[in-house]
Specification:
Pathway: Lipid metabolism; fatty acid beta-oxidation. It is a multi-pass membrane protein. It is found in: Mitochondrion outer membrane. Its EC number is 2.3.1.21. The protein is α+β, with helices and mostly antiparallel strands. Helices cover 47% and strands 13% of the residues. The chain contains 24 helices and 20 strands. The strands form five sheets. The chain has an eight-stranded mixed sheet with strand order 13-7-6-10-11-12-3-18, sandwiched between helices. Helix 19 runs antiparallel to helix 20.
C-alpha cells in the first residue's frame, strides 16, 4: 500500500484540535511536473499547427512583410494603393489611438491580409505543381524539359524544410477517372483470364452499364469528390474494414518481423525496454512532426492514429477510437494484464527503468483471475459476439476500467513465453512458426483491436501485429524500421545485454488490472483457433541475387518479382488468376491504396511462351514488354487512374441508391487468388548494411485473401537479398505454401537465366550462394 499512499497529494484527519493536514510534497511535485509536460505539449501542438498552417511560407515571413510595408510608408509611398487609408477610416472610433498609432495598426492589418493572401497563392501554386505526375512515366535519364522546370519550381516553393504534415493542404485531391477509361482498363485486365464467351459476356455487361446506370452513378461520385477530401478513403475504411463481421485476426491484421540473423540481446526484459523506448521516441517525432520526410511529398494523415488508438467492436460496424495522449502501455504476460506507466513526473523513463519494470512483471508469481487468461480471444473471433459481450459485461464497473486501460494505452505489449526466430537444427521450420506466432499467436495472447501490438519473446526476439483499418503497411513499416534501428544502433545495450541508463528504484510497480468475468470466451476462441490452425505460412530469404543484379539487367525489381510470381502461379495451378498488388495513392490528400492488376495480357503471353519452350530471344523481348507494362500499370494506379477503387465507389453509390448492377456485382465478387504486396524499405540511412550486413530485416506478411489462394509479401533488402512471406490455407487441397515458395525461387532463377545466360553457369560454380 506504500505506493498508493505516495500517489496521494494530501491527507487530513479530524482531531479535537481541528483539521490536521498532511501534504505530500513528492506527490505535489509529480503533479506539477506532469502538468508542466502537458502544457509544453499544448504549446508545441499550437506551434506546429501555425507552422503547418502557413506552409510553404514561414511565421517569420509575416514580420518581413510588415517591415517592408512600414518602410515603403516611411518613404512616402503607398504600396496598398489606398487600402491602408480605407482600413484606417473604418477603425472603431472607440480606439483611443493617436494618428500615428492608427496608421501603424492599419499597416499591421493590411500586412497580415497581404501575407495570408500570399500564403494562399503559394499554396495554390504548389497544389497545381503537385498535380503534375507525368514525371513518373518518363524513362530514367530521359527527363523532359517540362519535368525539369517542374522539379525546380517545386524545390523553390518547398525550400523550407517541411514538417510531417506541412504538405497536407497543398496535396491535390484524388481525381475521379472517366467511366469509359475505367471500363476499358478493366476489360483489358480480365481478357487473359476469360475464355472467348466469358470475355464477350463481360464486354456486353460493361457496355450496358456504361450506357445506362454508369453515368448516373458517376455524377453522384463526382459530386462527392467536389465535397469530400478524398472520394474513396472514408468508404474504403468503413465498408472494407470496419463493417466486416468476420475475425480481423489473420483476415485483416498483418505482422512485422525482427532482424533475420541477429538478436541485439537475449534478455527479454531488456529487449522490451529498448523497443518500448524506441516506439515512444517515434511517437514524439510524430507529435512534433519531426519524422524524416520523403523526396516526394506524400500524405501523412494515416500517422495521426498510429498511437493511442483502438478499434472498438459494434454489432453492425466497428469504430476507430483515438485519444490525444497516453502515458502508459498495456502488457500481457502469462494470462495477466498490467498497466505500465512509462512517464514519471513528465519525463520518459529510461530504457533501463522500463526494463526494470518489465522484469517486475516477469517475476510476478500471481495467477490469472478466472477468465482473464483467454480474454483476448474476444478480439480474435467474430465481431458481433464481441460487441454484444462488450456491451453486456464491459460497460461499467471494474471490467470497464480495466478495458479502458487496454484501449487507451499507447500500444499493447505481449511478453511471450516462447522462443522464436531462425534458430535450431531446422531454421526454415522455425521461421514459419515465427510468422504464425506473430500473425495469430495463441489467439488469446494478443489484443488484435489495438492499432498495433508488440510481441517480445523469451529469447529476445520481437515483432509486431498491426490492425489494418487505421493505416496501410508502409506506415507501420516506417515505424518498425525506426524502432529496430533505434533499438540496435542508438539505444544499444551494455556488455551483459541490459539496457543503458540509471534506475530510480522508488518507481511504483506496474498496476495489475482487475476483472470480474462471468462469461466464457470459448465460442470466440474456437472460431479463432480454427482459423489459426488453417493458416499455412512459409517464410524464406532468397539469397541468389537481389535488386542489384536485376537493375543491371535494366528492369524494375518489383516488376521482375511480379513476373516471377505469375510464372510460379502458372506452374503451380496450370492457369492464370486475378492478381492483386497493393500500390499507394498518398500523392493525393488522404490517399491510401489502389490495386495493380499484375496479371496482364503481356505477362500471360510471356509465361506461355516461356513454358512452351519458344526461343530465348523471343521470350526475352516478351519479358521486357511485360515488365514495362507492369510499371505502367503501377504508375497509373499511383496517379489516380486505377480500376478497382473507382468501381468499388460506384458500387457503394448503387447500394445507397438501391439499384442493382449485374456488372458491378460480378466485378466486386471476383476472388483475388494471388494477393501480393511489397514491404517498402524507406529509411535505408538508418541501417549501415555495408558495415553491418547481418542487420537484415525479414519484413512482414499477411494471411491469404481467398480460401483457395495465396498471400505473398516480399521485401527487397539491400542489393543481394529478397525475403518472401507466403500464406495459404491447409483446408484447400490445391494450395501449399512451401511448394509455392519453391516455385517462386525457381521462377526467379529462370527469369534471371533468361536475361543473363551466364548467370546459370556462375550459380553452378558457386553452389554456396544457394545454400
Amino acid at each position: 500500500m506504500a505506493e498508493a499512499h505516495q500517489a496521494v497529494a494530501f491527507q487530513f484527519t479530524i482531531t479535537p484540535e481541528g483539521i490536521d493536514l498532511h501534504l505530500s510534497y513528492q506527490a505535489l511535485s509529480q503533479i506539477y511536473l506532469s502538468g508542466l509536460r502537458s502544457w509544453k505539449k499544448r504549446i508545441s501542438r499550437i506551434k506546429n499547427r501555425i507552422i503547418k498552417g502557413v506552409y510553404p511560407a514561414s511565421p517569420s515571413s509575416w514580420l518581413f512583410v510588415v517591415i517592408a510595408i512600414l518602410a515603403t510608408m516611411y518613404m512616402q509611398s503607398d504600396p496598398s494603393m489606398g487600402l491602408i487609408a480605407k482600413i484606417r477610416e473604418h477603425l472603431p472610433l472607440s480606439l483611443s489611438l493617436s494618428a500615428q498609432g492608427q496608421t501603424v495598426l492599419s499597416v499591421l492589418l493590411f500586412s497580415t491580409l497581404l501575407w495570408l493572401s500570399l500564403i494562399l497563392a503559394l499554396r495554390f501554386c504548389l497544389k497545381l505543381l503537385l498535380s503534375y505526375h507525368r514525371w513518373m512515366f518518363e524513362l530514367h535519364g530521359r527527363i523532359s524539359t517540362k519535368t525539369k522546370v517542374w522539379a525546380t519550381l517545386v524545390r523553390l516553393l518547398s525550400s523550407r524544410k517541411p514538417l510531417l504534415y506541412s504538405y497536407q493542404t497543398s496535396l491535390p485531391h484524388l481525381p475521379v477517372p472517366s467511366i469509359k477509361d475505367t471500363l476499358e482498363r478493366y476489360l483489358e485486365s480480365v481478357k487473359p483470364l476469360l475464355d472467348v464467351d466469358g470475355f464477350q459476356r463481360m464486354t456486353r455487361l460493361a457496355a450496358e452499364f456504361e450506357k445506362s446506370l454508369g453515368n448516373r452513378l458517376q455524377k453522384y461520385l463526382k459530386l462527392k469528390a467536389l465535397w469530400a477530401t478524398n472520394y474513396v478513403s472514408d468508404w474504403w475504411e468503413e465498408y472494407v474494414y470496419l463493417r466486416s463481421r468476420s475475425p480481423i485476426m489473420v483476415n485483416s491484421n498483418y505482422y512485422g518481423m525482427d532482424f533475420l540473423y541477429v538478436t541485439p540481446t537475449s534478455t527479454q526484459a531488456a529487449r522490451a525496454g529498448n523497443t518500448i523506448t524506441a516506439l515512444f521516441l517515434y511517437r514524439r517525432c510524430v507529435f512534433f512532426s519531426r519524422i524524416p520526410g520523403t523526396v516526394i511529398p506524400l500524405c501523412a494523415a494515416q500517422c495521426e492514429r498510429m498511437f493511442n488508438t483502438t478499434r472498438t467492436p459494434g454489432e453492425e460496424t466497428d469504430v476507430l477510437q483515438h485519444w490525444q495522449d497516453s502515458e502508459f502501455v498495456a502488457v500481457y504476460h502469462r494470462g495477466r494484464y498490467f498497466r505500465l506507466w512509462v512517464y514519471r513526473a513528465g519525463r520518459l523513463l529510461s530504457p533501463r527503468e522500463i526494463q526494470y519494470q518489465i522484469q517486475r512483471i516477469l517475476d510476478d508469481p500471481s495467477p490469472p483471475s478466472p477468465g482473464e487468461d483467454k480474454l483476448g480471444a474476444l478480439t480474435a473471433g467474430n465481431r458481433t459476439p464481441w460487441a454484444q459481450m462488450r456491451k453486456q459485461f464491459f460497460s461499467s464497473g471494474v471490467n470497464k476500467r480495466s478495458l479502458d486501460c487496454i484501449e487507451k494505452a499507447a500500444f499493447f505489449v505481449t511478453l511471450d513465453d516462447q522462443e522464436e526466430g531462425m534458430m535450431g537444427e531446422n531454421p526454415s521450420v522455425n521461421l514459419d512458426r515465427y510468422a504464425k506466432s506473430l500473425l495469430h499467436g495463441k489467439c488469446y495472447d494478443r489484443w488484435f483491436d489495438k492499432s498495433f501490438s508488440v510481441v517480445v519473446y523469451k529469447n529476445g526476439k520481437n515483432g509486431l501485429n498491426a490492425e489494418h483499418s487505421w493505416a496501410d503497411a508502409p506506415i507501420v513499416a516506417h515505424l518498425w524500421e525506426f524502432t529496430l534501428a533505434t533499438d540496435a544502433f542508438h539505444l544499444g545495450y551494455t556488455a551483459d545485454g541490459n539496457c543503458k541508463g540509471e534506475i530510480e528504484h522508488s518507481l511504483p510497480p506496474p498496476q495489475r488490472l482487475s476483472w470480474d468475468i462471468p462469461l466464457q470466451v470459448s465460442e470466440s476462441l474456437a472460431v479463432a483457433q480454427a482459423l489459426a490452425d488453417d493458416v499455412d505460412c512459409h517464410v524464406f530469404p532468397f539469397r541468389e541475387f537481389g535488386k542489384g543484379r536485376i537493375k543491371k539487367m535494366k528492369l524494375s525489381p518489383d516488376s521482375f518479382v511480379q513476373l516471377a510470381l505469375q510464372l510460379a502461379y502458372y506452374r503451380d495451378r496450370g492457369t492464370f488468376c486475378l492478381t492483386y498488388e497493393a500500390s499507394m495513392t498518398r500523392l493525393f490528400r488522404e490517399g491510401r491504396t489502389e490495386t495493380v492488376r499484375s496479371s496482364s495480357n503481356e505477362s500471360c503471353a510471356f509465361v506461355l511462351a516461356l513454358e512452351a519452350g519458344e526461343d530465348r530471344e523471343h521470350c526475352h523481348k516478351l519479358l521486357r514488354k511485360a515488365a514495362e507494362k507492369h510499371q505502367n500499370l503501377y504508375r497509373l494506379a499511383m496517379t489516380g487512374s486505377g480500376i478497382d477503387r473507382h468501381l468499388f465507389c460506384l458500387y457503394v453509390v448503387s447500394k445507397y441508391l438501391g439499384v442493382e448492377s449485374p456488372f458491378l456485382k460480378e466485378v466486386l465478387s471476383e476472388p483475388w487468388r494471388l494477393s501480393t504486396s511489397q514491404t517498402p524499405v524507406q529509411q535505408m540511412e538508418l541501417f549501415d548494411l555495408v558495415n553491418h550486413p547481418e542487420f537484415i530485416s525479414l519484413g512482414g506478411g499477411f494471411g491469404p485473401v481467398a480460401d483457395d489462394g495465396y498471400g505473398v509479401s516480399y521485401i527487397i533488402m539491400g542489393e543481394e537479398m529478397i525475403n518472401f512471406h507466403v500464406s495459404c490455407k491447409h483446408s484447400c487441397t490445391e494450395t501449399d505454401s512451401h511448394k509455392f515458395g519453391s516455385q517462386i525461387s525457381q521462377a526467379m532463377m529462370d527469369l534471371m537465366t533468361l536475361l543473363n545466360p551466364d548467370f546459370k553457369e556462375a550459380t553452378k560454380a558457386n553452389p554456396d550462394k544457394q545454400s
